[in-house]
Every structure is written in C-alpha cells, then in structure tokens.
Amino acid sequence: MTLPARAAALRGDDYQHAIGWRWVCEALDDPDIESVSIEDREGGAFDDVVVRRCTQPNVYWQVKSSNYGDTMVTEDWLVTIKTNKGSSPLQHFYTTWCTFRRAAQSFELALVANRGFDGGHPILGAARSLYDGRLRTDAIRSAGTRSKLGKARDRWAKHLQVNRDELIEFLGDLQLLTEGNESSVDKASQAMMRNVGLRADPDAVVIGKSMVREWVKRGLGRQTRDDLRRQVADRGLLARAGTLIFAIHAIDRTPDRVQPTVELDIVHLYEGDAPFSRRQLREPCDWNGRVLPLLQNRVRELEAYGPRRVHVTGAIRLPMLFAVGRALPDVRGWVLSWDQHDQEWTTASPASAAPRVIDDRHLGNGAELAVAIALTSDPGASIELWARSHGPTVGRLLILGPNGDPGHTAVPSGDWSAGWARAARETVRRAVTATNAKRVHLFMAAPAGTAMMLGHYWNMMPTTVLYEYIPSENGYVQTMTLA
C-alpha cells in the first residue's frame, strides 16, 4: 500500500516536530543553547531545526522522512533538479554553506533522515563515518580519477560547478545523520525529559511535539530557553504538577525521587570529606563571592518557568536554607515546600503562631542586634560567648522560641512553622526599630524547614549575617551576609 501524498507529508511534519522537541529537551539541559527554532528563515536549505548556541557552533538541520525502508538518500535524489529554474538538493545545500561561510559564521550543517543512505555509493557509503555521520574528506580528496570514489567526487564537483578543493571544504562541513524512526526519537526525548525535571510519559511527549507544531502554525521564530521554560510549565509538563523542584547539593549529593527542574551544586566548595564535617567553605569569601551569585542565577531560571510553587530538596545546612528562602521570598509570590521527616511543610497556609521571647538581654553598648532562633535548643550561652569574643559591636541579644521548652518536638507542623516564622520576623522588626540596629546577626537552632521559611519571610530587614555552629569548636563561624 502506498500512502497518499498528504499522509506522507503529515508524517514528515511529525518527524520534524519530534526532532524539534528533542532539541527543546536538550536546550533545557544545556546552558550553552540560546534558542531553538523550526522552519527558520535564516537557515537556508537547513531550516527545519536551527539551534543557536553561545560558544559552540550553531546547528542547522534539514530533516527528511520516508515512509518505507526501501527509500534511501541516493546520488540521484541529491542531484535531481525537479523544475527548469530550480536547484537540486545538493545545490541548495552548497548555496547555504556558501552563505554561512561568507558571513563568517561558526556552524554545523546536517542532513538528518529516518531513511538510510545509499551504502553502495562511494561517497554516501564507504566514505561516510557511522560514528558521527561525517565524510572522510581525506579519502575523497586523494581518490584517483578512475576510481569509483574519484568519479563520484568529480561528478559532484561538476554538478556544483566548483573545483575539487571547494567541494572538499563543503563536504567537510556536512554531516549525514540517521536519527531512526519517530518512535525511537520519542524514546530518546523521554530520557532527556526525565533529566530536566519534566514528565516523561507518552502523553507528555505528544504535548511536547504539539508545542513545537504550534510554533510552525503561528510562524514563531527563535524560542529562547526562558520561552521554553514557560511553555513546558504552561502545558503541565513539570514532573511534579504545577510545582518546580529546586535541588541544592550543599553538604552532600542526594538522589531525588523526581528529577529536579533546577539544580545547584556547591559540595566541592566545602571543607571536609563527609557530609557531617562540611560546615564551612574552603574559602569563606565564596559565600558571597560565589554561592549567592550562583543561587540568584538558579532563581532566575526558576522564574523563567512561570509557576511560583517550588519544592526545595537536598542536603543543606540552616544558613543556606535561610538564604534559599530569602532568594524566593513571600513578597514576590513564591510558595515554598520542604520534606520534613516525611511530611511536606509548605508556606501556603501559615497557622496562627507566635514566638515566645525566651530572653532579651543587654550585651553592651554596640549598635547591632543578635537574634537566636531557639526552637530545637537554646543557643543563648554560646552566642553570648561569641559576642564577647567579637568585640563590642553587638549590644542586644534576642532569643525567640516556642510556647514551651525548645526541643525536637517543639514544632508541631509545617503550617505552625510557617506562622511562627512570619510572626518571628515581626518581633525582630520591632527590636530593630527599638535599637535602630543597622545589622542583625542571626543564629538558628531550628528544623530545616523553619530556617527556609524564616528566610522566605525575612523582608524589610537590615543587613543580616548568618552563622554556622561548629561543634568541635563550640562556637560559630560566619557564612553569608545578606544585604
């Protein structure tokens, strides 16, 4: 049975869109990719899929689909001119190559097909590498004029009206790739979708390909990585419905049940060979010089997706979690969640809770305020020792705790934690106003989720310095300074 022409055309379109969707997944994973476009006017004869990159060469693909296995890319197909004023595919390819060369572009050109290439042809067969689809131009150049390879080379040069060297240059920039059938392209996309935190079920692949098809129908041009992030979120393709997953590998790299949407890895910056020993960076200046800029960059990636619900995961100490919460603040509409002992704590529904002022003591005449969060233990004594060893800058110590005694069961739920964190911010604000403090030194003994929530609500505050407790030294070291 022979398919009707329209059916064959639709299959060809579907194949192109499947490959386009695979490049979308690649773009979400590769920061070097600037944009993906389909039917790009600037692509010449390689306009089907165009991928523009920051540092690597741009990619221009011409995609050809066949319906049956007996159809191949042959010399006849490449050099056939179908109309009196037209050009053959090979001539179109060469003209595009010349245009890009004159523009001094860095580019990769590929003819991509689900059909085979004529294995019996001297150029399309023996001279084509199955490793990367490139042609062995040295062999083509040195082939004798009476050999099959030399005769094919000279026919192509004559067809293009170029000399041998120009032909070899052109062929050296051309890849001939077999991408397999649409189903195999879809399976490759599914693997990549998992890697970038998207759903990877068959329906999700269909949605992804329809997204690419919509670009063509609407005549849309380049789609940047931010455009792609918004579109996959709008189409419900996030692995966790409507929620972005932000994985932070700080003191350890832990596996996630669901692939993260965005990741931040700073394990290599820490001192120590094990998670329990990683409390300070090798270079303390990296907290503000490297970690905070990296965090802001990842937040920008999250913002590009559109949804404002973020589930935070990872092995993270309290100061870093506070910084994450502050980088994704309540005032910008973010809703955060965190798995605390197999319970999801979220900032979506803060309960009515208020901190108890455990202590509010005078330390000296300094103008700065120290704040201790004492939910799981009371760090007041060690903070006072710290304050005495760091000069007279801190004048007051405010210790905030739960209704009862601090301890590991003092925080009953995520909603209570969110409400307590928000109320604690107001208590600290009042202390800042009363002391006219221009700097707050923050120490935390709290559940991880509470530290994140406190940062989430920490707005309209003076410069805040975060500290990490070092058990072996029975004291604190400074980490980040948040202006």
From TrEMBL:
<dbReference type="Pfam" id="PF18145">
    <property type="entry name" value="SAVED"/>
</dbReference>
<protein>
    <submittedName>
        <fullName>SAVED domain-containing protein</fullName>
    </submittedName>
</protein>
<feature type="domain" description="SMODS-associated and fused to various effectors">
    <location>
        <begin position="301"/>
        <end position="482"/>
    </location>
</feature>
<dbReference type="InterPro" id="IPR040836">
    <property type="entry name" value="SAVED"/>
</dbReference>
